[in-house]
Amino acid sequence: MNVASSFVAESLRKSKAGNLPKLAALLQEHQQDLGNFLAVDPRGRQIPAYLSQLSEHVAAEQATVLKELGQLQNNIEHIKEIVTVQQDFARGASMVQTLNISDIVEEALQIHSTMMVRHDIEVRREFEEVPAIQTEKHKILQILINLLRNAKQACEGTPHGEKRVVVRIVSVPGFVRLMVEDNGVGIPPENLTRIFAHGFTTKRDGHGFGLHSGALTARELGGSLGVHSHGRGKGATFTLDLPINGPGVAA
Ligand SMILES: Nc1ncnc2c1ncn2[C@@H]1O[C@H](COP(=O)(O)OP(=O)(O)O)[C@@H](O)[C@H]1O
Ligand SMILES: [Mg+2]
């Protein structure tokens, strides 16, 4: 974040757009005979070419700065994730509590909301009424945050127009089921098992730890994490089942 923000500051400081006031002043000076100035005066004659050069420069600068700011936003997102999970941890929430799953889902969605909007991804909620569950909040948050990030990244990877993530809360006997469905890049059948392996990733900057630890954590909680996809380009659905009565009872 330090590198990105220094870079943005430096770019703006050195921006060629800083020459615009001088140009405006020059034109102001010759307000009375602008036509003549632009057509005849050696300085005036350079202005049209200079302006088109300047606009190219400024457009390029803008693109670089926007790209860098995007990076910055990504990193802020990441920090938010860490802070949320840590705070929950620090609150001593590592014990089993009775919780409304929809509150946890909203908290996880909140973390990703800026990026979802920025990437034009529609987030749809389909929540059924479900009983409160006995569980460990930060563990679920950790799983969900990764599922949502994966869904977001899967959507970013698709060329087609409508990008959508649907989060469902479904009641099943003895369990509360959380589903994160996206219409992104999908998963080829040969990868459906491998994606849970430690270190498996198809992303340039991926770590491949999210699903692995998610599946382990789900099991610790007495539940399970599963996946379904019709294949490449067909989206994916992840399903997290959590026992209503907590890990002890279901295990
Ligand atoms: N929603 C999804 N759509 C398509 N592929 C996915 C999705 N979620 C996970 N994957 C696949 O599973 C891999 C492992 O995911 P994960 O364990 O979270 O690690 P990472 O996100 O660091 O790659 C991803 O690299 C990707 O290939
Ligand atoms: Mg991931």
Task: Describe the structure concisely.
The protein has 251 residues and is an alpha+beta fold.
Q: Your description of this structure?
A:
By secondary structure, this protein is of the alpha+beta class. It folds into 2 domains: 2-72; 92-250, Heat Shock Protein 90 (2-Layer Sandwich), CATH 3.30.565.10. 52% of the residues lie in helices and 18% in strands. The protein contains 8 helices and 7 strands; from the N terminus they run H-H-H-H-E-H-E-E-H-E-E-H-E-E-H. The strands form 2 sheets. Strands 2-4-5-7-6 form a 5-stranded mixed sheet. Strands 1-3 form a two-stranded antiparallel ribbon. Strand 6 (224-228) and strand 7 form a beta hairpin. Helix 1 packs antiparallel against helix 4, helix 5 packs parallel to helix 6 (137-156) and helix 6 runs antiparallel to helix 7. It is elongated and about 90 Å long. The two termini are 43 Å apart. The structure holds adenosine-5'-diphosphate (ADP) and magnesium ion (MG). The site of magnesium ion (MG) has 4 residues, from helix 6. Residues 146, 150-151, 154, 182, 184-187, 195, 200-203, 206-212, 236 line the site of adenosine-5'-diphosphate.
